[in-house]
Amino acid sequence: MNIKGVIERYKEYLPVTEKTPIITLCEGNTPLVRAVELEKMLNLNAEVYLKFEGQNPTGSFKDRGMTLAVSKAKEEGMQAVMCASTGNTSASASAYAVRAGMKSFVVIPEGNIALGKLAQALIHGATVIAINGNFDVALKLVREITDEYPVALVNSINPYRIEGQKTGSFEICDDLGFAPDYHFIPVGNAGNITAYWKGYKEYKEAGKINNLPKMMGFQAAGACPIVEGRVFEHPETIATAIRIGNPASWKMAEAARDESGGLIDKVTDDEIIESYKILAKNVGVFCEPASAASVAGLIKTVKSGYFNDKQADIKLKIVCILTGHGLKDPDRAIKCVSSPETVEANKENILKLMGY
Ligand code: AN7
What we know:
Helix content is 42%, strand content 15%.
């Protein structure tokens, strides 16, 4: 039963005191699903687990960080929160703001956020401001405004967001009983890879785990500033959640990669969609396109021969983070498959389509 949320569950690792009001929607405690189908498909001597963060209260991993960011904003007496967002941060911020009795302001790139996410921010009563600029432009403006006005910035440059999100690592280690060997994760603004790496390191220091995973981050090929070492002025990808050209936690993502001996690579939109469909059709997990970048990354890495010399007698333990729920972006799902056929309403027609 999850009646606590991540702050109660992991408070000894988090910057909270008895005075901190805990604003929660009982986030965290998300499933770690073993994907035997993927193991077979990849022909890899490994156990592959999917951490399905789409099961969080607002349907993405953002809730882990938002519970803490909003709790601390409340503790500090703030009356409003603000973020720039490709969608999920705005959905989460607006929901947690409701819980805290605070106002929320969200700035989004017009035409480039998934319908479900927009619906969430609106129904939670956020003031939603769409701009004719991308996420990076929105974040710059939001930073300026929150510097000048008494409004709490709840993007992942807010350190409490990272602190809350590191609980994802704790849960993986608690569920497995050890740390994985490899941690595959999508990278957009690079807060989550930063948070997971921090979490693993802290769990090792606390004596909870003996090893650290290699951090394997994946950006979309049309928005891969870290991979190419340059800002993307016009990032483009169907994975709108990670359509980011100048990640705020760029340096920390590089540190996670380098300290862990991992990598940050790119996957094409086609590879993302292929993995998105495999996850839905072969594994039974419906995540949003950006989330499938982790699995697309795993498939690419296996194909490249990366693991050839690394498969010892013991099975590798691999975790892929699925950051958000597929229902966030129903349009994309529908576009990927053929529409249902409509027939005259009789039994024969239905049986024919059933293949009987
Ligand atoms: C589903 O909501 O940046 O590398 O404004 O929604 O920590 O940015 C979302 C990012 C991956 C990338 N998967 O995580 C936002 C936003 C999903 C996401 C990422 C996002 P970061």
